[in-house]
Design goal:
Largest sheet: 7 strands, parallel
Order of helices and strands: EHEHEHEHEHEEEHEHEHEHEHEHHH
Shape: globular
Strand content: 15-25%
Distance between the termini: 11 Å
Structural class: alpha/beta
CATH architecture of the largest domain: 3-Layer(aba) Sandwich
CATH class of the largest domain: Alpha Beta
Number of helices: 13
Helix content: 40-55%
CATH topology of the largest domain: Rossmann fold
CATH superfamily of the largest domain: Glycogen Phosphorylase B
Radius of gyration: 21 Å
Number of domains: 2
Length: 374
């Protein structure tokens, strides 16, 4: 059985698929081709997987500007990946395509070429009534005309990894969403060498493509975490100028407070979360689920629609704390949020509830068995 696994150009989109790809590639009669950005593939470390990589689509998300609209970005990116997936369909003759819900070109290509396809939720709200309608509109932009591809007999459904409440709003999912147990990649190993004296430990990591908070906000967030008793901090700052400033300030804070602070350009959460207690993030579905799975409380500073959706789900389930990154008194907000995350009985119960709900779901191996027997 030949399978194409296609992802949109972002680490979160790729990481969403990797546990499924890992289990599919372990089947003796499956050949799996991971299709997408080579830059993202290198960052997410797919070399340990028994799957070949095929470049497809753009290397990273196109940036919006005064000369190109958001819809035009969706159309261009989708049509590029559609062409590349069509080429791979012609070359490799796949029996199945699995893709994350933001990889619209793969769905259009699958329908056009008669290949069964399965969609995996990457943005948490993608299967809600509003999210499903918006994704259908975006696939129409890519295709050039309206078509209800989810009603196609080629559609094997939409799946998500994690408890249903994480992907459902006030209304039930629009699509026939099947949920399976969230798990980390088997190949993801924790970084070793951290001392218990460095706990509690916090990570700060905002998404790859969103605008990072201003340096003043980041500095106040650091101080708020230290005020709450954090002993070790690891901060991801992509922008070089901000990183240089924050490193200098961190050295001063470390000398004054004794807190271990490191500032880096990249931060692989799969490796660092096992040794953390808190994650300050913008609330991407993949990072938040990985934190919850590792019993690390997310402090969410939502940046856009799907991260606002994740923030609401976590608040409703007492499985996280939310701050307003554009509000006043960031230091006090973060101090209060971190204190609640570390000491609130409601948060502790919410984290335990997530673990129980996730454990009650069928493992991804059940889905793999269904796909292979299809």
């Amino acid at each position: 059985m030949t399978i194409l696994a296609a992802y949109a150009p972002g680490p979160g989109h790729c990481n969403t698929l990797l546990p499924l790809v890992e289990d599919l590639a372990a089947q003796s009669d499956c050949r799996v081709y991971l299709c997408g950005s080579q830059e993202v593939a290198a960052f997410t470390g797919i070399g340990s997987l028994d799957a070949q990589h095929q470049p497809a689509g753009f290397e990273s998300y196109l940036r919006s500007s005064s000369s190109i609209s958001g819809d035009e970005i969706i159309r261009r990116m989708g049509q590029r990946s559609r062409r590349d997936i069509e080429r791979l369909i012609t070359e490799l003759h796949p029996d199945l395509i699995v893709c994350d819900t933001s990889e619209r070109g793969a769905v259009v290509a699958a329908v056009d070429h008669g290949v069964p396809f399965l969609r995996v939720v990457s943005c948490a709200d993608a299967a809600t009534p509003n999210g499903s309608a918006e994704e259908a509109r975006r696939r129409t932009l890519v295709r050039g005309y309206d078509a209800d591809d989810l009603r196609s007999p080629l559609n094997l459904g939409t799946v998500a990894f994690g408890p249903r409440w994480f992907f459902s709003g006030s209304e039930p999912p629009q699509e026939n969403l099947r949920c399976y147990r969230y798990r980390s990649r088997t190949a993801a190993e924790a970084i070793h060498g951290y001392s218990r004296r460095q706990r509690p430990r916090a990570l700060i990591s905002f998404g790859t493509f969103i605008t990072e908070p201003p340096i003043e906000v980041l500095g106040k967030a650091l101080m708020g975490l230290i005020d709450a008793g954090i002993k070790s901090l690891r901060v991801k700052i992509r922008k070089t100028s901000k990183r240089v400033i924050l490193r200098g300030w961190s050295e001063y804070l470390s000398a004054r407070t004794g807190v271990n602070i490191s500032v880096t350009a990249e931060l692989d959460l799969l490796h660092h979360l096992p040794h953390a207690d808190l994650l300050l993030c913008h609330g991407s579905a993949t990072s938040t689920l990985e934190a919850l799975h590792r019993a690390v409380v997310p402090i969410i500073a939502p940046a856009h629609n799907d991260t606002l959706f994740v923030a609401r789900r976590c608040i409703d389930a007492d499985a996280g704390v939310v701050i307003d990154p554009t509000g006043n008194c960031i230091r006090k907000q973060v101090h209060a949020a971190a204190t609640a995350a570390l000491h609130s009985p409601q948060i502790t119960a919410g984290m335990q509830s997530f673990a129980a709900a996730n454990s009650a779901l069928p493992p991804i191996a059940v889905l793999v068995d269904q796909l292979v027997r299809h």
